[in-house]
Design brief:
The chain is of the alpha/beta class and 248 residues long. It has eight helices and 14 strands.
């Protein structure tokens, strides 16, 4: 049974969430403020957190940062704040998704299920658990990227994009698939999200973000990873996967 921690100070919304989630066999715990949320997250180790940003004792972003200090649990923000700046602030702090109030229960459940799927060990899905390039190394199981001697911090959204791209080295992943997998059906046409987050990934991983070698755009279609870094591959040369690692 999936354990859900609901962090919300509106009793009516908490009740509605509990009824709907419990009817679908989720185990629901509730917290009415940020301090209780942090304590319950540490003690109860939920599988996913639904978090309101407007809490009575602290901003929800502070809760995200606190939990991210020791846990990778998926965090879905439920908030009436709808500006891009608020969404980016929460996502950069470590939230996995952002659902704007009011929302439909079907949409929330779809986002919740997508978030819990993303927590699966990449190896259990049959793909490579990481890649090694000339510029950086990615270990998906440990959620770690090293570039040179430095560990690179990625947001959960950046992680999910990167995982989808390197799961099948060299293969095109369509814009629609990326949007559906990362943001859900509501954002299936929001290609601007992809442009923003791919630009962020390239700034963190590519030596020359304006001329990427490893995260390639296929105009009008999607993106692909290119672990060997060759701008045009030699005949017959493909990325080599050995065990759970992908190497040139």
């Amino acid at each position: 049974m999936t354990r859900v921690l609901v962090v919300e100070d509106d009793p009516q919304l908490v009740r509605a969430l509990k009824i709907n989630l419990q009817a679908r066999k989720f185990d629901v715990t509730e917290a009415g403020d940020g301090r209780a949320a942090i304590r319950l997250a540490a003690d109860g180790r939920p599988d996913v957190i639904l978090l309101d940003l407007g809490l009575p004792d602290m901003d929800g972003v502070e809760v995200i940062r606190s939990v991210r200090g020791w846990s990778r649990v998926p965090i879905l923000v439920l908030s009436a704040r709808h500006t891009s700046e608020e969404k980016i602030r929460a996502l950069d702090a470590g939230a996995d998704d952002y659902v704007t109030k009011p929302f439909s229960m079907d949409e929330l459940l779809a986002r919740l299920q997508a978030a819990t799927r993303r927590q699966e060990d990449p190896a259990s899905r049959g793909g490579p658990s990481g890649i090694t390039t000339e510029e950086f190394t990615v270990d998906l199981a440990a959620r770690k990227v090293v570039r040179g001697e430095r560990t690179v911090r990625l947001t959960p959204t950046e992680w999910h994009l990167l995982e989808l791209l390197i799961a099948r080295p060299g293969h095109l992943v369509s814009q629609r698939k990326l949007l559906l997998e990362v943001w859900g059906p509501t954002y299936a046409e929001h290609t601007n999200y992809l442009r923003v987050y791919m630009a962020q990934l390239r700034r963190k991983l590519e030596a020359d973000p304006s001329h990427p070698r490893y995260l390639i755009t296929e105009p009008g279609m999607g993106y692909r990873s290119n672990p060997d870094g060759q701008r045009s591959r030699e005949p017959g040369r493909q990325p080599r996967v050995t065990g759970s690692r992908c190497t040139p």
